[in-house]
């Protein structure tokens, strides 16, 4: 049977299945995290591009937290839909499928096993957020070329939309287009660090040059943001992470002559990327600074005033109160996360990575009666 390795050098209550974890990595969690996952009947996926890892958090049969991780080079955007996960990586858009039926388990533990079934080679486009439109078409933020793109059967990508302030499709990260909000199967809003139309121009606008752009009209609906990421449409509102200030909040639409504005809900101690929702909870990804400090960003001062150090992990925010109710923290060699997805109805998920012995030995058969035997 498929038997992932386990690392016993973890805090009580946390078990891990691993794939060449960098040395010196430790996990910790709040006391109620497992209980919250159980009450919501969910698991959580998140990516770390810095370490090239795709993580799945679930509940093991003993009632503790299970951490499953696999290597995917520069793991970035995540899209979850039923038993399918799409993952943006360094040079591919990967589709993973859950090969288990509801009554099947691996090692009497895992009730979902996400296996790579297709990978579209795009080349290194610095793909960020991704989604699936109403026609089943893959859409992704092509940061390197400043556009929204879809896959091409022949070429690396096909551009489908460019912000109006970028004059042409060009191999230059000009505005650092990064986030995409989907609604009713279509992209409705994107985030960019600036409106720059010169190579690397966004780097000088990190403090307050960020914008939210409406895809259909090209209209800027909010500006003055600091490195905004992860726009998400949820419960009739546009939420996003104002990463340079460490805030989760929503956009208050323009009223008359006034512009739309960002309304913070809460502050989190880190550079925020990755946002997903379930019920009244937001799942937010936090990262540490790349070079000791968030130089030039208000986040540095916010942390100083709060007498806090930045940390890497996931915080669960109650949308009714803005309070952090639960958390999962990573210390050590893994310091930066990118995206988060929620897996409804899954208790203890696992995944398999390319080139692994487990992937070569796990053979499933698509039969008409839906009994998919797992190979010994």
Annotate the secondary structure layout:
Layout: E1 14-17, E2 26-29, H1 33-40, E3 42-48, E4 53-59, E5 65-71, E6 78-81, E7 84-88, E8 92-98, E9 112-121, E10 127-132, E11 138-142, E12 147-150, E13 158-161, E14 177-183, E15 186-192, E16 210-214, E17 220-225, E18 228-234, E19 237-242, E20 247-252, E21 261-267, E22 271-278, E23 281-287, H2 298-305, E24 312-318, E25 324-331, E26 340-344, E27 349-351, H3 357-361
Parallel strand pairs: 1-5, 9-27
Antiparallel strand pairs: 2-25, 3-4, 3-26, 4-5, 6-7, 7-8, 8-9, 10-11, 11-12, 12-13, 14-15, 15-16, 16-17, 18-19, 19-20, 20-21, 22-23, 23-24, 24-25
Key phrases:
single chain; 376 residues; mainly beta; Neuraminidase; five-stranded mixed β-sheet; five-stranded antiparallel β-sheet; globular; disordered N terminus
């Amino acid at each position: 049977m498929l038997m992932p390795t386990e690392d016993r050098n973890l805090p009580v209550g946390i078990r891990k299945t691993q794939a060449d974890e960098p040395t010196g990595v430790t996990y910790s969690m709040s006391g109620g995290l497992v209980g919250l996952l159980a009450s919501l009947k969910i698991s959580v996926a998140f990516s770390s591009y810095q370490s090239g890892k795709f993580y799945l958090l679930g509940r093991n049969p003993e009632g503790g937290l299970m951490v499953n991780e696999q290597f995917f080079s520069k793991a970035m955007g995540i899209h979850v839909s039923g038993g399918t996960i799409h993952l943006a990586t360094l040079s591919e858009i990967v589709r993973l499928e859950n090969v288990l039926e509801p009554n099947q388990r691996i090692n009497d533990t895992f009730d979902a096993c996400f296996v790579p079934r297709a990978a579209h080679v795009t080349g290194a486009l610095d793909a960020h957020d991704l989604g699936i439109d109403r026609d089943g078409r893959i859409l992704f933020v092509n940061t390197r070329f400043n556009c929204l793109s879809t896959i091409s059967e022949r070429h690396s990508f096909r551009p489908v939309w460019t912000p109006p302030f970028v004059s042409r499709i060009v191999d230059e990260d000009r505005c650092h287009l990064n986030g995409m909000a989907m609604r009713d199967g279509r992209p409705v809003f994107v985030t960019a660090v600036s409106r720059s139309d010169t190579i690397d121009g966004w780097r000088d606008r990190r403090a307050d040059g960020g914008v939210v752009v409406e895809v259909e009209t090209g209209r800027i609906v909010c500006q003055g943001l600091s490195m905004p990421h992860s726009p998400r449409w949820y419960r009739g509102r546009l939420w996003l992470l104002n990463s340079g200030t460490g805030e989760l909040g929503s956009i208050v639409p323009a009223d008359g002559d006034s512009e739309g504005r960002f309304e913070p809900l809460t502050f989190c101690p880190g550079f925020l990327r990755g946002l997903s929702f379930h019920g009244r909870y937001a799942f937010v990804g936090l990262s540490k600074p790349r070079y000791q400090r968030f130089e030039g960003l208000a986040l540095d001062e916010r942390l100083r005033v709060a007498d806090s150090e930045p940390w890497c992990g996931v915080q669960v925010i109650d949308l009714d109160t803005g309070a952090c109710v639960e958390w999962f923290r990573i210390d050590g060699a893994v310091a930066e996360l990118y995206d988060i997805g929620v897996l409804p109805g899954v208790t203890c998920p696992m995944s398999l990575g390319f080139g692994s012995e487990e992937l070569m030995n796990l053979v499933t058969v698509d039969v008409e009666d839906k009994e998919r035997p797992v190979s010994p």
